[in-house]
From TrEMBL:
A molecular function (GO) term: N-acetyltransferase activity
Protein name per the record: Alcohol acetyltransferase
PANTHER family (UniProt xref): ALCOHOL O-ACETYLTRANSFERASE 1-RELATED
Gene3D superfamilies reported in the protein's UniProt record: Chloramphenicol acetyltransferase-like domain
Length: 514
């Protein structure tokens, strides 16, 4: 195989192995982050392709992991192999929009379709000769006037977590601004050669990942729990998104403050409530999976501004009987979510307080060290129940790139952002990804085709298209929350950030004091 001829960088850590093997056996394809870019001023004679190629060339020189490919030998330990060069024309695609998309629109069906296709396309074609990432440029419909576009960075999960996706976009925006402000016009060489720089150490090299001597006591009650259909292949991804102006979320955030709950705890609770409203009354429990970033527990010099995979997750069971009691004539709104939100907040505190005698966090991902053959474990899970009902991955705020001190205003503005990913065959039937940039809050909804019952998929609903109903119910729920009390003017972005919608590139559940 071509990848077997690549120079070895280092062996994969267990967390990296999980993503690499899952990709290899079609359990998981990729993850992604999309951002809209628009010039801050008129750009005469602007060549979009040359600008993108030029910016990407600089990003490649900054992040050596973009030349790395997971190699899974039949007998030896998996390792990272290094490509000698990358042909930019083989990893970048330019797509024209077929119709206008409103800047303030809540939905973008054309981008959703593009992302769904991308998340159903793995990196096996040309494996060992092409990198395990790609960049898709969706041009604005009126490109000649706006010069704007949406850049979707799609990557193998072994090489990056959500924060790493943000790091890529920050580097890309900085490079794009530099190229635009430069007076030198030159054609970019389409072949970029590796500088053989080091990649980030694995999580195991940066953290001892202690394992408790006694297994933690499970508080999960044995109830009739909904977890979708059993684990099965093929794993075909469905995807829809929703972008809400930040001011729509202000009422929700203010209610969270009133109840002394962080929005990062209230959002999963809202999803649980909306699922309960659309599941049979016999469903007694839901288990929520909550990914968290471990970067703040790692040496800053080795992870800050560096692409890599440093995540963990914990689970919380949310019981129907714990829902707040609501009078029969009340709207769903925020009522019904606070008991669950407080339980999630308590579980979050407990997770981060669970440390070893030497002070290191007990991360759940440490258990991967006890699995000798991850591939066999994943394959053996087919036909078994899933481990959770839904997942909420909240990366908080993705702020605009800051210019160097004394520099002029950024020549490119980053607008709407969307965090997205494929469905995971062994994971939750529904995944909600959340990311905001102080102007919009982006929600991405992912589910495996066939993993959820017809009561959750809108096969008999408004449009009969089979599209996920949860997107509509989430916006309805948030709008109902907002409508219960009058919006207070002046409760702006700064307060929103302070209360909870700010993770500064890391998972806010790790950064916000709860």
């Amino acid at each position: 195989m071509a990848e077997g001829q690549l120079n070895k960088i280092r062996r994969l850590g267990k967390l990296e192995q999980l993503s690499a093997v899952a990709h290899h056996i079609d359990f998981f394809t990729n993850t992604g982050l999309s951002a809209h870019y628009a010039p801050a001023h008129v750009l005469p004679d602007f060549d979009l392709e040359e600008a993108v190629y030029g910016a990407l060339s600089q990003v490649l020189n900054q992040h050596p992991v973009l030349f790395a490919i997971p190699v899974i030998p039949e007998k030896d330990e998996p390792y990272w192999g290094r490509l000698g060069s990358i042909d930019l024309e083989k990893v970048v695609s330019f797509v024209d929009r077929s119709q206008p998309c409103l800047t303030g629109g809540q939905t973008d069906d054309e981008l959703d379709s593009l992302l769904e296709r991308q998340h159903n396309t793995n990196f096996k074609a040309g494996y060992g000769t092409l990198p395990v990432w790609r960049l898709v440029i969706l041009k604005d419909y009126d490109l000649e006037l706006s010069k704007g576009f949406t850049a979707s960075f799609i990557a193998h999960h072994s090489m990056t977590d959500g924060t790493g996706l943000q790091i890529f976009h920050d580097s890309f925006q900085k490079a794009l601004c530099g190229i635009t402000s430069s007076s030198n016009e030159q054609t970019v060489d389409r072949a970029v050669f590796s500088n053989n720089g080091p990649i980030a150490p694995s999580l195991e090299e940066l953290h001892p990942l202690p394992i408790p001597t006694s297994p933690p006591a499970s508080n999960a009650t044995q109830l009739n729990e909904w977890r979708g259909a059993p684990i099965a292949l093929p794993c075909n991804t469905r995807y829809k998104s929703l972008s809400l102006p930040s001011n729509i979320m202000e009422r929700f955030v203010q209610d969270c403050k009133k109840h002394r709950v962080a929005p990062t705890a209230a959002l999963p609770s809202l999803v649980a409530r909306l699922l309960y409203d659309n599941l049979p009354s016999t469903v007694e429990a839901l288990t929520c999976n909550l990914p968290v970033s471990l970067r703040s527990d790692l040496p800053p010099k080795l992870v800050e501004g560096v692409m890599g995979n440093f995540i963990d997750a914990f689970k919380v069971q949310l019981v129907r009987s714990d829902l707040d009691q609501v009078s029969g004539d009340s709207s769903i709104g925020a009522t019904g979510i606070w008991n669950h939100a407080k339980k999630i907040q308590q579980a979050t505190r407990k997770y981060f307080a669970n440390a070893s005698p030497s002070g290191e966090l007990y991360a759940n991902v440490a258990a991967l060290k006890l699995i000798p053959d991850i591939g066999a474990a994943l394959a053996g899970s087919i036909g078994h129940p899933r481990g959770e009902s839904f997942e909420v991955s909240n990366l908080g705020t993705f702020p605009e790139v800051k210019n160097a001190k004394g520099a002029a205003k950024s020549s490119w503005h980053r607008g709407k952002v969307l965090l997205s990913r494929c469905a995971y065959a062994g994971g939750a039937p529904l995944v909600v990804c959340v990311l905001n940039n102080e102007e919009f809050v982006g929600f991405g909804f992912t589910w495996q085709d066939g993993s959820m019952e017809e009561s959750i998929v809108e096969a008999r609903g408004k449009n009969g298209t089979g599209d996920l109903n949860c997107r509509d119910i989430v916006i309805s729920g948030i709008m109902l929350v907002r409508g219960q009390l009058k919006l207070t003017r002046g409760f702006g972005v700064r307060r929103l950030k302070r209360i909870g919608f700010s993770g500064h590139g890391a998972n806010p559940q790790r950064r916000i004091p709860l």
